What does this fold into?
Amino acid sequence: AGDDRPEWLLRGASGVVCVYDVTDTGSFSAALRLLRSAKDIAYQHMNEVVYMLVGNKCDREDRRTVPQRIAKRKAQDYDVQYMETSVKDNINVDQIIGALYRTKYREGEGEAFLTISKYGEITNM
It folds into this structure.
């Protein structure tokens, strides 16, 4: 997944958020593949894009299979922002958008953001 994404979806995007489920190592691997793919496409088109890796379901510590330290290390390796959230419990949901917004406008830009979910769905925001 990710390699078959049309490049036009990333043209002009200001931000990419790759979301994975902290209780599902497969979704973490898929999010990393999508992130790599998105960065490659943006690089080819010389886009300045803000990237974020987001672990969802942080409220499910009892079922976590992706350790936070591993995810943070991967985010550092990919040179992207990292945050954890729980959509169910409304933890850090607004902070994700705020972090992307602040980063982009600090750089003097700001267009529509692009979200790639753990399922590979791409959404303009």
User: Anything to note?
Assistant: The first strand starts at residue 15 and ends at 21. Helices lie at 25-44, 68-78, 93-106.
